[in-house]
Specification:
39% helix; 4 strands; 12% strand; Rossmann fold; alpha/beta; 163 residues
């Protein structure tokens, strides 16, 4: 199943979610993840890349991109579209072919943290831990046993889960 993680800048949270989903053993057999932003920054945050490399998650194909790529003809059809920031959740999204299930998994933006590099690294680590937990919950759902309405509800409930 294809899942698209969205945020505004597509430089931190959605990038982490894409990379972690595609790398975590519990999810990579069930999902193919992508990420995009409504107003992409055009580059991936260096703290996100550093964290992923330190945890041995491949980064070579990661890039900041517009959500328009996934609404265009020929784009992969999404089964899930999940926003990970409050701003993107409130924006009018493009039409997604295939009527994917949607959910909001809002969390603080680690890229907005001001302070020392260590404080920024800590913020990225906390965000990654929250995302990892939610991705593991998504991957643990018995997809084949749930009807669409039940699955939609459970995916949305994951966004209310504390780290």
């Amino acid at each position: 199943m294809n899942v698209l993680f969205l945020c505004t800048g597509n430089s931190a949270r959605s990038i982490l979610a894409e990379a972690m989903t595609n790398n975590l053993a519990v999810s990579k057999k069930k999902f193919r993840a992508y990420s995009a932003g409504s107003h992409p920054k055009g580059k991936v945050n260096p703290f996100a890349l550093e964290l992923l490399r330190q945890t041995h998650i491949p980064t070579q194909d990661l890039r900041s991109k517009s959500w328009d790529e996934f609404a265009a003809p020929g784009a992969p059809v999404m089964d899930f579209v999940i926003t990970v920031c409050d701003q993107a959740a409130g924006e009018p999204c493009p039409y997604w072919p295939g009527q994917p299930m949607t959910a909001h998994w809002g969390m603080p933006d680690p890229a907005a943290v001001e302070g020392t590099d260590e404080q920024k690294r800590r913020a990225f680590s906390e965000t990654a831990n929250m995302l990892r937990r939610r991705i593991e919950l998504l991957a643990s759902l018995p997809l084949e046993k749930l009807d669409r309405l039940s699955l939609q509800s459970k995916v949305r409930d994951i966004g209310k889960t504390s780290p």
